[in-house]
Amino acid sequence: MTTTFFLVRHAAHDRVGTVLCGRMPGVTLGDLGKTQARRLAERFANEKVACICTSPLERAVETAEPIATRLGRPLEQSEGIVEIDFGNWSGRSFDDLSDDPRWHAWNSSRSTSRPPEGETMLEAQARVVHAMERLRNLYAERSVILVSHSDVIKAALLYHLGMPIDAYSRFEISPASISALVVGDWGSKVLRMNEVIAA
């Protein structure tokens, strides 16, 4: 008995690459992101999907809604796949963070570092894997879409690839990308990573 997971990173917002948004409210899709969300909906149009789950943050919900509408499926929000809690770093620019030695420690060793007042990447990995296991038990022999965030998706993929969390920088998870894997009692297999829909 297996479950296929499509791990979708939310589409682009106007702060991508400049601000560490984390869980700050009010981060919504820009024009490019809205276009990407519509393309994702078309990409999934012919998939038989049992459940569509999204992080509760606005940018993820706005990405998931067109998919749910296109497939005629309800949308479920899950705290288990929400963005990493970056604590006091949330909302700060990457330029500003570049002067913080704790930021350098975080990016050189995710296995031993924690954002100030935030959570570790290993804690995020534990909750996303737990959320996936819950869904696997509910949707055996079916497919599930999870709309989440880059580092959370990386954490899930690293777990299923049997790789350490510090290998997070070895692959890219782009906005509006799809990564797919199959999970069963026998283990898991990653089918593809970072599929980006062409314009």
TrEMBL record:
Cellular component per GO, a single term: cytoplasm
Signal peptide from the UniProt entry: none
Family matches, as Pfam families: His_Phos_1
One term of GO molecular function: phosphatase activity
Gene3D superfamilies from the UniProt entry: Phosphoglycerate mutase-like (3.40.50.1240)
Superkingdom classification of source: Bacteria
SUPFAM superfamilies: Phosphoglycerate mutase-like
Family annotation (SMART domains): PGAM
The protein's name in its UniProt record: Phosphoglycerate mutase
